[in-house]
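Data availability (excerpt). The following record was deposited with the supplementary files.
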Amino acid sequence: MSTANGYVSNGEKRLKLTDVDEETLNSGGEGYTATQVFVKNPACVAYTYDDVIVMPGHISFALGDVDISTKLTRNIELQVPFVSSPMDTVTEHKMAITMALQGGIGIIHSNMKPEDQAAEVRRVKKFKNGFILDPVCLSPESTLEEVYRTKESLGFSSFPVTDNGKMGGRLVGIISNRDTSFIEDISVKVKEFMTPRGQLTSAKEGVSLGEANKMLKESKKGKLPVVNENDELVALIARTDLQKNRDNPRASKDSVNKQLLCGASIGTRPDDKIRAKLLVDAGADVLVVDSSQGDSTYQIEMIQHLKSTHPKVDVIGGNVVTPSQAHHLIQAGVDGLRVGMGIGSICTTQEVCAVGSAQASAV
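Predicted structure:
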């Protein structure tokens, strides 16, 4: 059965679908428009999301035709409408990477030193799906006991071995389950049982994911070290991560460098201007000015500063719950708004400040 232009066809005849009569529409049996519920609201009632439900209608499309992509800001579009909160300690680089791989975006919180927050952003922007830029390394002098402890705490079993036991050291070998399976003396050192450098397949810095995947297939290895001209380890490529790259076609990436999108939170204090510069230099794609009450002189001044100083970075202002609040921040130059005040399960704004709004009405 198919539907087109108001007609339903079952292959034999076409049925013309018509709307119900006006009396039925006016009765509320088909529901009410958003204007009727939220604007023309004689009872002066504000609604939460739990207070309203979307009425069903006629379906004339397949599930595969549904598009859930959305605009985060004036210039940033997400394939999946998932955005993490800029609240303290919610999002750091691991969560931001995961959010972006799934088609959303993570906002790095600001409850840390500006330099640390910028470093979190930089980790996200440097991430290349399939490239591990901070692998756990061991040194030739590490013992099998240390290997077992590391495996138990991290949950994986292959480690590159560098001369100093750190990322950036000269690659001297690699160890995996195959190397440790039949050793009983836990005091034996890594250099005694690792696969030495001469037997390793490695890639040169700058290798593409396509080239790396081909090398892994040909070598039948699970890990591929990437080294620079001095044979120092700069990355590790894992077959499982290459599979993840294939499995994340909706990943949120910028249009220029194809890096994962990442946002960061700032406040409205004068020092936050310095923080903002560090975040922009680290590659942040959007800055979120985080405040429970966004319509303030301090936030408007911060927004104007950000848009004049960093014009290529989008700015989200907020929080707002009224048209006048939103209007003021739009006048200041924001590229997006955060709507809501005191509606989180652990938020105390409405109790402490005695202001706010039910979320459905606010939106």
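Summary of structural features: The mean pLDDT is 87.
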